[in-house]
């Protein structure tokens, strides 16, 4: 929703959500406002961000919300609890567009998401080298084998990280993101090409 120009109007946001739901009644709908600090298009006050997510939950139009980890622990936990009380799942996320943290830090963030009640923990990081891509994949594997109690989604962005989008399942990432027309993050692959490679690896 961060591409939506009338984001200040909760009613306009919900009207747009209704239009999307009506157009795709059988497709799970993930409500996402990506903040500018994590790669999104706009900056809004934290309280409006939280209110938008609560309004989406209340609307009954969405199946999941995306909640950024570093919004504040108390607010995040309260929103998770509110979502679950309304049978809405939570994808908790963190996006680092500047670097790839050490594997230990990546695992720590994913574990914190779980501790705060995330149904799906997601992290995307920016590689500065091929070794950074290996760091992300190593952290993903460690998370899956030692700590995960639910699905985890991880990816290394940009051209260097494309392999993590293609082969993430091998290391424990539960999903990836493809581009229909225009990529929303560096390194996203056209959805038809992505599907072909994923099916080859999944069925191998």
From TrEMBL:
Its EC number is 4.2.1.10. One of its GO terms (molecular function) is 3-dehydroquinate dehydratase activity. The keyword Mitochondrion does not apply. 3-dehydroquinate binds at residues 34, 165, 184, 188. Pathway: Metabolic intermediate biosynthesis; chorismate biosynthesis; chorismate from D-erythrose 4-phosphate and phosphoenolpyruvate: step 3/7. GO terms for biological process: 3,4-dihydroxybenzoate biosynthetic process; amino acid biosynthetic process; aromatic amino acid family biosynthetic process; chorismate biosynthetic process. The active site is at residues 95, 122. It comes from the Bacteria. The keyword Phosphoprotein does not apply. PROSITE patterns: DEHYDROQUINASE_I. It catalyses: 3-dehydroquinate = 3-dehydroshikimate + H2O. InterPro entries: 3-dehydroquinate_DH_AS (IPR018508), Aldolase_TIM (IPR013785), DHquinase_I (IPR001381), Type-I_3-dehydroquinase (IPR050146). It holds the Pfam family DHquinase_I. It is an enzyme of class 4 (lyase). Keywords: Amino-acid biosynthesis, Aromatic amino acid biosynthesis, Lyase, Schiff base. Homodimer. Involved in the third step of the chorismate pathway, which leads to the biosynthesis of aromatic amino acids. Catalyzes the cis-dehydration of 3-dehydroquinate (DHQ) and introduces the first double bond of the aromatic ring to yield 3-dehydroshikimate. Belongs to the type-I 3-dehydroquinase family. This is 3-dehydroquinate dehydratase. The gene is aroD.
């Amino acid at each position: 929703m961060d591409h939506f120009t009338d984001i200040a109007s909760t009613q306009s946001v919900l009207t747009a959500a209704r239009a999307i739901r009506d157009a795709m009644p059988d497709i799970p709908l993930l409500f996402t406002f990506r903040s500018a600090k994590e790669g999104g298009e706009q900056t809004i006050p934290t309280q409006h961000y939280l209110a938008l997510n609560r309004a989406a939950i209340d609307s009954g139009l969405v199946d999941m919300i995306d909640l950024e980890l570093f919004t504040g622990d108390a607010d995040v936990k309260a929103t998770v609890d509110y979502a679950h009380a309304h049978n809405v799942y939570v994808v908790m996320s963190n996006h680092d567009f500047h670097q790839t943290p050490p594997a230990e830090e990546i695992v720590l963030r994913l574990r914190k998401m779980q501790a705060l009640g995330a149904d799906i923990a997601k992290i995307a990081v920016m590689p500065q080298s091929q070794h950074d891509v290996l760091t992300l994949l190593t952290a993903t594997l460690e998370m899956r084998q030692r700590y995960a109690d639910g699905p985890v989604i991880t990816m290394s962005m940009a051209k260097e990280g494309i392999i993590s989008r293609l082969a993430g399942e091998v290391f424990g990432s539960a999903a990836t993101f493809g581009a229909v027309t225009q990529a929303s993050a560096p390194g996203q692959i056209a959805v038809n090409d992505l599907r072909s490679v994923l099916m080859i690896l999944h069925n191998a």
